[in-house]
Amino acid sequence: FCQSLMNSVFPPELRFAFLKLFNRFFQLFSSFCYFDITEIDGVNTNELYNAVQLYLSSSISSVSGNRLSLTRAINSSSITFGLSNNDSIVDTFNSVTVVWEHIVTQRQTQTFAWRPMPEEKRGFTLRIKKKDKNLILDSYLDYIMEKANEIRRKNQDRLLYTNSRGGSLDSRGLPWESVPFKHPSTFDTLAMDPVKKKQIMEDLKDFAKCQSFYQKTGRAWKRGYLLYGPPGTGKSSMIAAMANYLGYDIYDLELTEVKSNSELRKLLMKTSSKSIIVIEDIDCSISLTNRSKKQSTAGSYYDPEMTLTGSGLGDDSGNGSTITLSGLLNFTDGLWSCCGSERIFVFTTNHIEKLDPALLRSGRMDMHIYMSYCTFPSLKILLRNYLGYEERDLNDGVFKEMEEVVVKAEITPADVSEALIKNRRDREKALRELLEELRSRAKRNEKNAKLRGRNGSLTVAADVEEQEKRALDSPYAEENGEDEEEEEIDDSICKNSED
Ligand SMILES: Nc1ncnc2c1ncn2[C@@H]1O[C@H](COP(=O)(O)OP(=O)(O)OP(=O)(O)O)[C@@H](O)[C@H]1O
Ligand SMILES: [Mg+2]
Fold first, then answer.
1. Where is the AAA+ ATPase domain (predicted)?
2. Which of 59, 167, 308, 465 could form a disulfide with 286 if both were Cys (CB 3.0 to 4.6 A apart)?
3. Residues with Cβ < 8 Å from 354, sequence gap 6 or more?
């Protein structure tokens, strides 16, 4: 009645002025202040709107409301909850209570626009008590942005990037191509010494959590791991487990596709933070032939500007490919390595003894991790994963014997996995055949060791046979053909180089 009376008595201008005055008056005495966060700010998308939406999604699912909105983004394997139109939710931050309301209104029809606008106008309104405003507003919004990024990363599937296009750019001008990364390897499935595994997991968690530590100590927020060991011991699986553990993307850098240091730098600049940058088989993707030549003539130990030739290019003169060792080192720990932050570098190699000492010196790769042949603790993990044997099942004679022979057998986790997969429907048979395999390998190794002791060389028939078998197993058999004669690095040397 009042409203119709007002409409009929007062002209519209007066009515508008009255309402404005009333609002002012109301605000003056209200103990709340309001912040509108609209989806589109002018013509740009408002990042804060998306962040608030994601942030609220984490607390909404637990609220028992009648109506919630559900979304699933492209490339995502999880569903996010959202507030329905004109619904509200209470949130608490630093013991201060705030209210969020999701407001959706119809947009007036546009006669002309540079960019078509959505028909609905959406926004969040944040209600905070005036006395709390200065106390929390800035830190609350920062917290929301951070939390939203975290949720986004968790919801989004990992991506695996590669530079295999040889320097050409994609339609968006990026040198990296990506595919969703769905490797199932985790630290749980990884067969290795549990103590070492725990150390690595703690190291990774510390790294991801401790931005302030890196800032305080003046270090770039990055970490380097060198994984080394025979083929099939889980180096690539470890990288996948690291990515899954931290929720990072992987950049698989194919060094043979990179033509110059500046290209390497550009690639690095286009990587995002929270990622693992991987150079697999570093001894194979770069050949150090020039170094040995220079070294022997000039007698100098290490020339940082020496050219590393891509093995695919095979240019020993150093003219074709111009990635230098210093370029690679700059990539990992020079000034360029800290554009962007929170990055992990992982190099893998089957032959640590072939790597340049400059790559190995302390501080360059923070942790050297030896991926060894199967030990009994790692065998137990594989038996659990593949056949469902638990620790308590592992006491009888078969397992005792396995414990004795497994180290002598020098068998890789990959070979054990193969043997177990083959007979996974028949646990007894799987165990029998595995034990048989372990025994025969242990016996062969013992015989070889004796022969080696007697002849003092590796050129006895049995060893040649074994070398050939290993070379065939290795995908780099041809590239490294001449080097296969070299003695394998002693375990003790490997262990000494660990941090
Ligand atoms: N430590 C391990 N734990 C669990 N599975 C493993 C392990 N090592 C190897 N495997 C199995 O063997 C397969 C090959 O392993 P992976 O590719 O990780 O070896 P690698 O050390 O990277 O070998 P390469 O030196 O030839 O690259 C994996 O798919 C996995 O199933
Ligand atoms: Mg590998």
1. 221-375
2. 308
3. 283, 288, 483
Q: What is the pLDDT of residues 425-435, one digit of tens each?
A: 898 899 999 99
Domain boundaries, the chain: 31-156, 159-370, 376-496
> Which ligand has the shortest distance to the CA of 382?
1
Task: Give the closest residue to 489 by CA, choosing from 312, 368, 366, 309.
Answer: 368
Q: Which residue has the tokens 């296009």?
A: 165
Q: Is ligand 1 within 6 A of the CB of residue 232?
A: yes
Q: What is the pLDDT of residues 88-145, one digit of tens each?
A: 888 888 888 899 998 888 766 655 555 555 567 889 999 999 888 887 888 899 999 8
Q: What is the DSSP string of 156-210?
A: BPEEEEE-TTTT---TTS-S-EEEEE-----TTT--S-HHHHHHHHHHHHHHHH-
Ligand nearest 284 Cα, by number?
1
Decide whether any atom of ligand 1 lies within 6 Å of the 190 Cβ. Answer: yes
CA distance linking residue 478 with residue 475, whole number of Å: 8
The verdict on domain 159-370 having CATH code 3.40.50.300 is: yes
324 lines ligand 1 (CB under 6 A): no
